[in-house]
Amino acid sequence: MNKTIGLFAHVDAGKTTFAEQILYNTKSIRTIGRVDHKDSFLDSNSIEKERGITVFSDQAVFQYNFSTYYLIDTPGHMDFSSEMERAIEILDYAILIISAADGIQSQTEIVWQLLRSHNIPTFFFINKMDREGANIQTVIKDIKSNLTEDICFISKPIKKKKFDRKIAEFIAERNDALVEKYIEEDYEDDIWLNSFMKMIVDNKVFPCMSGSALQNIGIDSFLENLDQLTFTRYNDEDKLSGFVYKIRHDEQRNKLAYIKILSGTLKIREEIAPSTEKISEMRIYNGMKFKNVDRAAAGQLIAVKGMPSAYIGCGIGNFKGNIRYKMIPTLRSKVLFDESLNSRDVLKYFNILEEEDPSLKVIWNEKLQEMQITIMGIIQIQVLKEFVHERFDMDVDFGPCEILYKETIMSSSYGCGHFEPLRHYAEVYLKLEPGQRNAGITFKSQCNVDTLGINYQKLIQKHIYEREHHGILTGSPVTDLNITLVDGRSHIKHTCGGDFREATFRAIRQGLENAQNILLEPFYRFNIKANVDYMGRILSDIQRLNGVFETPGISGNTVIIEGRGPVAALMNYSLELTSFTKGKGKISMVFDGYDICHNGEEIVKKIGYNKNSDIEYTSSSVFCSKGQPFLVEGKDVERYMHCLK
C-alpha cells in the first residue's frame, strides 16, 4: 500500500528532528542528523543547513510493515507557505507537530486552516515533552480551544482486538451506530477500528500522540498507530491519471517533472496524454539520492524526464481535477542586478525559478529593462538572493517590498476592439460587468455562431485568459470581471493568426475605459491573543490600521480578537504587538483575498500610472478604408464598429 504523509509545524517545533527519528526507526537512514549539526537528511540544501530552516518540500521513502511511505517535509516559515501548500495537494495524511513548550503558534493555525480547506486527514504529535514544565493537558486544551474539539489523545498502541475503552467512548459520542455496542461494552469487534479509521479519513476525528523527537520517545508508538489507522485505495487497473506537483532541474539542468500517480501505471518511454510527450527516464527520490525505475504505479511519487511542456498543476492521462492554490503572494519587489550582467541571462534564470515556483510571477518590462517578482515576505527575498548566487553564480539584490494591487470595475460597460491592417481582419464586441469579489475573470458567449464561428469564439476566450490585463488606474492586474462576448466579425479571406488576440485585448481595454474603475488591495484575516489588559490598545490599533474586528472573546486572562484588515497596514504589526505585550501577545495572519483599497486615491497618485503610455495595452483600434489602415482612439471606436452598424 502506497501512502504519502506530510509533516507540518511552526518553526522550531521539532519537525525536522521528528522526520529524522521516523527514518531512523524504520532503518531508512543509519545515523540521525540534527538541524544544529547541519546534517539532517531532508534539509539537504546548503541554505537550509546554514539557516536551520526548511525552504523546499523534499521527500524521503521508507517501508513499514506492508506499506511504502512517502514522507514529505514541508517549510514551517510563513514566507514559504506557497511551497508548503503545493505539497498538500499530494498528501493522503498530514502530521501536525506542536511544541509542548510553545503550544499553538501563528503558523500552526495557518497550517491547520490550509489542511482543513484541502480536507487532509490529520494526526497531531505533541513534541518536546521532555522539556521542563511541559504539560500534555495544557496543550490538548490549547488545541481544543484554537483548532478542533475532535482531538482524540492516544497514549498507547491501538490494538485490533480489545479496543481501548476510552477511544471507544470518544468514537461512540460521534457515531450513533456504535452507541449500543459501547453500552454493551462490546470492544472485540473489528467495527471499532474500521469506524475509527473511516472517521479519521473523513476528517471527523483527529488522533493525537505525544513524545520527544530529540530523545526518541513515543516515535515507535506513533509509527505503529499511524500504520494501523491509515489506508489508501489506489487502483493500478484504472486508466492512467495524475498531476505534476513540482518542477525541478537536476545538476545538468535537465527538467524534472514530479508526478503524483492517482490511478493506473506509467512506464518508461510511454507517451503521456494530453501532451504526447514520451518519458525518457523515471526516478524515485529519497532525499538527494534517487533510483531509476521502469514502471510506477498508483499512489507513487515519481520524477520524470521527457516532459518539457510540463508545469506545476498540469494533469496527465485521465486527470479531471482543478488545482487552485490559496497561498497567494501579496508583495512584489524589483530585481536589482549589475549592468555588466546580460539582462537576457538574468531573465532566463528567473524564468527557471518561476517554473519551479509559479508564485514568483516574473514580470519583465522591456521598455524599462526592469524585472519584478511577487513574493510572500522579507525572509523569502533573503533566501532567494543566496539561492541565485549559489545556483547560477550570479549576484542580485532586491528593491523594497511593495503591495501587489489589483483593479476591477464598479459599473457595467461595453468594449470595442477592431484590428484591420492590410490583409488582416477581426472585430470583437464585449460586455464587461463587475464580478464576485475574488472570483477572478469569467467568460461566456451570447454571440450567434452564424455571425462568428465557434472556433473564433473559443479563440477569443483563450486570449482573455492567456495574460493578465492592466487596469487603467495603476496598471495593476484586472480581476473580478464577468466578460460576455456579445458580437464579433471575421473575414473568410483576411482573418489570420493573432488578429483576434489584437481585437480582444483592445476590446477589454476600451471597456475598462468606459467603466467606473476601482483599486483593490490584499487583506489579511487575523487572530490575536493577548492578556486582557491589552484589549483596549489592540482594538484601537486595529481601527487605526483600517481593520475591522468581531466581538472579542475572553477566556480567563486572555482576550481573543478576530478580524480582517489591509496587508499594507498589518504586515508589520506583529513586531509592534510583540513589543508592547513584552512577547506575550500572538497574532496569526492569513491571506483573505482582495477588497476595496482603503487609501485608493493616495496609491493611484503615488504610482502615477499613465494609461496612454502603456502601448502594449491600448484601447485604440485599427480600421481600413480604401486599402489604407488608420488608427481610431478608444473613445471614438464605437462609431466605426462594423457589428454596430
Question: Which features characterize this protein?
Answer:
5 domains, Rossmann fold, 26% helix, seven-stranded mixed β-sheet, 17 helices, Small_GTP-bd, GTP-binding, alpha+beta, Alpha-Beta Plaits
Layout: helices, strands, pairs:
Elements: E1 2-9, H1 15-25, H2 46-51, E2 58-64, E3 67-73, H3 81-88, E4 93-99, H4 106-117, E5 122-127, H5 136-146, E6 151-153, H6 165-172, H7 179-183, H8 191-201, E7 206-210, H9 219-229, E8 241-249, E9 255-263, E10 265-267, E11 271-272, E12 277-278, E13 281-286, E14 289-292, E15 295-297, E16 301-305, E17 315-317, E18 331-337, H10 343-356, E19 363-365, E20 370-375, H11 378-392, E21 396-398, E22 402-403, E23 406-409, E24 413-419, E25 426-434, E26 441-445, H12 454-465, E27 481-489, H13 499-513, E28 517-531, H14 535-544, E29 548-549, E30 553-555, E31 558-566, H15 567-570, H16 573-580, E32 586-596, H17 600-607, E33 621-625, E34 628-632
Parallel strand pairs: 1-3, 1-4, 4-5, 5-7, 6-7, 26-27
Antiparallel strand pairs: 2-3, 8-9, 8-17, 9-16, 10-15, 11-12, 13-14, 13-16, 18-20, 18-21, 18-22, 19-20, 23-28, 24-25, 25-27, 28-31, 28-32, 29-31, 30-31, 33-34
Helix pairs in contact: 12-13
